[in-house]
């Protein structure tokens, strides 16, 4: 049933199995080959014109919103806490927080299954948390511009 997992908000992006052919084909496209990329995109996706009617130039950006399973209380597989910021703010390092510096201080908001999910929410800055009852909530990390440096996982 792994291929039947719904993707996106309310399953609007289909199921995992729906995307497998397009993803497999994407792996065969040679980087830098514009003609091959265009053929791939035309084969698997429907293009739409997006115009503002004043210029033929534009810029599209994208935003990835991670989606993770969570619970409002610890238990079962849900063992990884997401914390709210302490008040007043305390300058613990990520390593200190991961080692338990905030544990037991009543700052736990949501519990996740996987520390990688927590990491992705922290790096991305926000995401959607899905609860076992089907309800969802948005999680947003406080912005601390310039306080820390972050290096892309892709580097």
Structure description:
The protein is α+β, with helices and mostly antiparallel strands. It is 24% helix and 16% strand. The protein has 4 helices and 5 strands. β4 and β5 form a beta hairpin.
Summarize the structure.
The chain has four helices and five strands, in the order H-H-E-E-H-E-H-E-E. It starts with 15 loop residues before the first helix and ends in a 15-residue tail after the last strand.
Short descriptors:
155 residues, alpha+beta, 4 helices
Which outline best applies? elongated
Decide which structural class fits the backbone: alpha+beta
Largest sheet: 5 strands, mixed
Radius of gyration: 20 Å
Strand content: 15-25%
What's the SSE pattern?
HHEEHEHEE
| Helicity range | 10-25%
Topology of helices and strands:
Elements: H1 16-26, H2 34-44, E1 66-71, E2 80-83, H3 94-98, E3 108-112, H4 115-124, E4 126-130, E5 136-140
Parallel strand pairs: 1-4
Antiparallel strand pairs: 1-3, 2-3, 4-5
């Amino acid at each position: 049933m792994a291929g039947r997992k719904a993707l996106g908000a309310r399953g609007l992006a289909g199921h995992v199995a729906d995307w497998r052919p397009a993803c497999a084909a994407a792996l065969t496209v040679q980087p830098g080959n514009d003609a091959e990329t265009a053929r791939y995109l035309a084969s698997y996706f429907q293009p739409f014109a997006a115009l503002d009617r004043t210029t033929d130039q534009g810029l599209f950006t994208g935003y990835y919103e991670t989606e993770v399973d969570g619970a409002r209380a610890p238990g079962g597989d849900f063992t990884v806490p997401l914390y709210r910021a302490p008040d007043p703010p305390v300058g613990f390092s990520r390593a200190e927080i991961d080692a338990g510096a905030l544990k037991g201080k009543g700052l736990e908001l949501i519990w996740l299954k996987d520390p990688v999910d927590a990491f992705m929410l922290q790096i991305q800055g926000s995401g959607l948390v899905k609860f076992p009852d089907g309800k969802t909530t948005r999680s947003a990390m406080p912005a601390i511009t310039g306080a820390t440096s972050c290096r892309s996982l892709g580097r």
